[in-house]
Every structure is written in structure tokens, then in C-alpha cells.
Please model this.
Amino acid sequence: MVWKLLSGIAAACLGVALYFAYISKNDIRQERDLEKRAKENLAEVKTRKEQASSVLAQKGTQVKNLEADRDKLKKEVVAAEAESKDKIAALDVAKKSLDEKTQMLSAAQKQIDDAGDVSKLVEQVKALEKDKETEDATVAASVAKIAALQEKLGTIQQQTEHLRTVEVNSRKGVIEPTFTAHVAQSFPDWGFAVLNKGNNGGVIANAELDVKRGRNVVAKLKVRNVEQSIAVADVVPGSVRQGYLVRSGDLVVAAPVAAVAPTPAKTPAAGKTPTAAPAPAPGAPAMGAGAADPFGAPAPAAGKPAAADPFGSPAPAPGAPAPAPAPKTEDPFGGAPMATPPAGGAAPPAGTGTKQSPSTADPFGK
Model:
């Protein structure tokens, strides 16, 4: 009887051992699956990090190129200013020479009047008049050259200001006011969208955008990653309008920014060029320069619109803020369910917004 009892106990122990071995085998298989997923996620994160580093290097190269262009334009401005000063000095010398020729002509004419009909004095007067005409032509040519240099200087200054504005906008994330794009793919459960434009389309990192449907602004986006032909933008928490979701095909425009009055540029007004002083009549004293200084800084043109302030904060979007879409409960990378919602805000209350089935596709094309 004892050996039967011991045999039963041994069989029971063996069954328990087999049960625990089976459970342990399943746990080990699950752990291996989790490890495999973790390695795949790690490899994908490394790949994205390399892509982000490449984009950052491209941005750095663009900034360096812009800085090189700005320095080149500065050198051209300095050279143009020096050349303009030289031309002004030459014009002053020509004016002095013209005054001297006019005085000599006046003296010769007086001698003719005092001496009477003298052929030699007439010939001298004709020679002086010819010299005066030559000097007048030289002065007119100098004035035209100075006007051309001033126009070139104004163009260079405008280009310099434009490059400076582009550089500031690139660093501050301010996009061109005329920028437009469309939503290529929307992931409302994860709080971001993919745009159909990238670097080639004028998209700038950290730029703030408005999503419009018709005439209504339904949400706000902030650009996170930019590539050559696409860009990824996060939905600004609390910016989604009540009853709306960001959808594929929605129009995306630049968010409005505050405007300030521009600083008037020290360039001559368009269409105005300095004119040469009229040639004095024979025997008349030389005329001085006009009251207006052709090299002074003109007043800014009336009615010129104020430029956008690249350092200003964007204006608030119309309409009351609405809660962001509900978070997705399944990780598209194969990890454990998320305990907190991703970027895009808290889940909206039940019964509000537009119903939409959760996306099961991987947003990165896996």
C-alpha cells in the first residue's frame, strides 16, 4: 500500500512539474517575442535619428550658404559706396572746372565788349565755349553714372535685407505668408499629419500653420520634421475646432503673424534720379547745386505696406479651442499599449467630434 501511495504522490509531483514547465515555456516565448519587437523598434529609431541628423546637416549648409551670400552682398555694398564717393568727388572737381571756364568766358566776353571787333578775341571765346560744352557733357555723364550707382546700391541693399529676412525666418520658423499645401495623410489618433510639401516647397521647421476647410480654420499645426518633398507636423493641442478632425486633402496655409512698420531704407525713391545743374548763359555767373541733395536718404514712399515682423508671435486663431482626438490604444510599432495619449492633447468627451475608426496601418509605411 505504501508504494502505491508513493507512486501516486510521485505522479502528482510529475504532473505539477509538467504544468509549470509548460507555463514557463509560454512565458519564455512571449519574452522572446517582446525582445524581437524591442530590437526592431531600436533599429527603426536609429534609422530615424540618422535621417534627422542628415536633415539638420542640410539646414546647417543652407544657413552657411545664406550667410556667405549676405557677406558677399555686404562687400558689394561697401565697394559701391566707395565708388559712389569717388564719383561724387569727381563731380565736384568737374563743377569747379565748369565754374572756372564760365568765369574765363565771362572775362573774355567783357574784353571783347571793351576792345570791340577783334578776331582773335572772338576765336578765344569760341574755343572757351567749346571747352564749356565739353565740360557740361562730362558733368552730365558723371551725374548719370552716379544715378546708376545709386540705383545699383539700392538694389543691393534690398537683396541684403531680403536675405537677412530669410535667415531670420529660417531660425524663427516663420514661413512665407503666401505658402499653401495640403494634408497628404492624417493620423488624428496620434496627433500629427503628413504634408505634401517639404524643403522644395518652402516648408520650414517649427513653422506654425492653419488647417482650413472652406473659409474656416479647423486646426493649427506646428512643423516637426521636414524632408525634400514631405513634412510631418504636430496638431497643436486644443486647436482642433469643435466637431472637426484633420483629414487628408485639407488646405494648409501660413498662420498670420503680427506686423510692424518697416525701417525706411536709405535708398533713392524709385523713378527719381539727380539732375545736373543747368548750364549758365555766356556772361552769367555759375549756378550752384539744387536744394535737394541727390545723395541724401529720401523719405519712404507713401502708402507702402508694413512688412511682417519676423520676431512677432502669431495671431490667435478664430473660434473657441476644442479638445484633440482620442488617443490610440495600440502601438503601431508592436509595443505595449500606451498609458497616456500621444502628442495632440487629451481625448475629447464622449458624444462630441466626428466619429472615425482608429487607424491600424503603420504611419511610417511598415
Residues 175-261+307-353 form one domain. The first strand starts at residue 180 and ends at 187. The chain has two helices and six strands. The chain has a mean pLDDT of 74.
